């Protein structure tokens, strides 16, 4: 088999718009896994909300989570942190001041937990959809924990926020990415799916030419570029499809299954 590792984005790529996995996709992934291919979920999700997807696939193994900021191995013994790109709360205080002042919802994540200062019914539904159970605290600035991701969530404000933060360089030496239409993530400058995949591939002694990566959004570009074959699903923005080596069907039309059948089986 030409590809020894398949890196899969989850939301908008592996899952359909109802956040579901098709049975045929599960069967195809299990088939290629049984032939010796490593399946690695590479997602903006936390480990706790990624693990149920891995289990639904009937697999164990390594997950690249928080958009590359935390790599976690999961097996019957539990979850073990393999690598993280962390930062301190003090490094994002100017941004925390901004979102508090503007009333924009945010959360901060350690590798294994998420913390919020407030929540409405709309945000509660969003977290439930992504299988997330955040911890409510009075002030995240008092956590004193290594943070791997700071996320903004809004239906209408993020284009303005992104523009203002880029003009003001409010994120400083950090990395700001748009991980979805409704999300902005701020992480360590070293944290991205490509760097995490590169580190994992080195551990497994797998050459980039032996890796296929499938994604749907701008936070997938680094892993698609690192892989020997980077594939975008049809529902990706045009910029993502243009950067890809190939395009497969949409997440609602089993695009991941189609790509595995075409290039691996």
Automatic annotation (TrEMBL):
Matching Gene3D superfamilies: 3.30.1240.10, HAD superfamily/HAD-like
The keyword Protein biosynthesis is assigned to this record: no
Keyword Cytoplasm on entry: no
Keyword field: Hydrolase
UniProt cross-references to CDD domains, sorted A to Z: HAD_Pase
Domain of life of the native organism: Bacteria
Pfam family, one: Hydrolase_3
Molecular function as annotated in GO: hydrolase activity
Protein name in the entry: Cof-type HAD-IIB family hydrolase
Organism: Paenibacillus germinis
